[in-house]
């Protein structure tokens, strides 16, 4: 029988299994059995030595050994003993055809137990007990590591120079302070002062939440940075506070110094993290490393401040547990609300998959004992590096770089984008009245509908390169844009383009983090060009994405007919864009001789041919004639690549292979970008 409390506890955490077997059916039965009993399972099936050596370095609950041509049970046990978790239990799956050998293995080697999948009840009972035993060992090792870390940290603190500014706090009251603190604040009698009144932090709520959390982090050193409004302060703001608790009593130690970082909140990781992260690096088959910084979003602080001490402690413990579960223990907790870690990357696809997976942790709902819920969002920072770091200073630089390159989750993007849309509205923008009527081409009056963020949909789609050399080329547009059935005013087209540019720059910034060769073609109207507002707005939002640091990553796409109709061919903006490393594209390009002057004057890098392949017969043109025109243009304008658009299903896409044109575009791939 299984203790039901143990089984319930198993249901609260994913089970991580390595199954070494050449028997796919048996592997499937194991997963089905666990899922039938309402367990979430993360499992891999392998049967070779190299894969096992690579995978075993992650965190697992059990290893199940069945039968493998390239891996024996004694090798498996030796590899486990040399891994990060040498006590990891290994269970043998019984094979009916080699029962005698199986009994010999059990008697000679350190195998935890044997399992027979055909005896379902016994199999499940033994498996759950083994997992529970494994997790008890994991918890023991975790506590031991933390205890050793806090002992090292306390010993280090005791060895620090006696002239470092330090004070001791009990229940928010200063009970002791050395002379250095008194000199810094030009005060002699500070014993008995409330810490808040003494430090006078400018952002009171942030400090209260951070210090409250730090006071409960018994096994961690926490770094807090504040701007102090104390009139007698002799140090320069911001101040760096190093906070840790005493193992023997309720004292909270606070060391005060000038911040060494460039901005509040960019403190380097704790020194004790260096050895742990350094030891986690491996060089085998690794092309890159990814350093992650993870911080609690400030939106959770108001709810945290409403909790009492016990509730805050429960919240922090549950939060840490969620982070450990998601990252399989690969992140190190620097403070109650900050983590960091290094992930090895074997390929660009591996990198992309790992970064994409972070969005699954965009927010978590933390529930504490009394039923209170706190929705918690996170701020991710990322930076890549090629070689293992060899000093604390190198790690600090990487950590600061990660903090400076934040990866917004979809949730935070949507929230921020809603604010951005509001900020982008012109101050004098008014809802269009019934008097604002335009006429369509057929002479029918049409009411001009105001554009709102609810009506606007932004999406991006991939441009396919037949040569497979430009794999990360995307076009970004909107439903109210290229194919809009509406007639829109100049003010509205400006507003739409501002929103699209802002969102495109944010999206491009994230893509380039994982794929440095990414290029975005951004569809725009010509209104900003007509009003001479394009360049000023690009400069204004360059803080979102530094296009100067990524030449040719941005291409601005305009309607061929709009440019010609508004006589914008000779506008100086085109040369200025080229000078800034921003390319130009033309859509709806008609291959007529009298229009070729646009290519000569504007020097576009892309031209979308104004033709739909599925309807080419109705135009009286054959594929051969289309090819002749294309060949002529490609010969005359080798600097311009032509795109065959409107391939709206896979049949059109297949037919496009009969046309000698490099780039293909259609709605077979679409991804919406949240804007509100």
UniProtKB/TrEMBL annotation:
Pfam families the UniProt entry points to: EAL
Domain annotation EAL: ranges: 451-615
Domain of life: Bacteria
Protein name: EAL domain-containing protein
Organism annotation: Acinetobacter apis
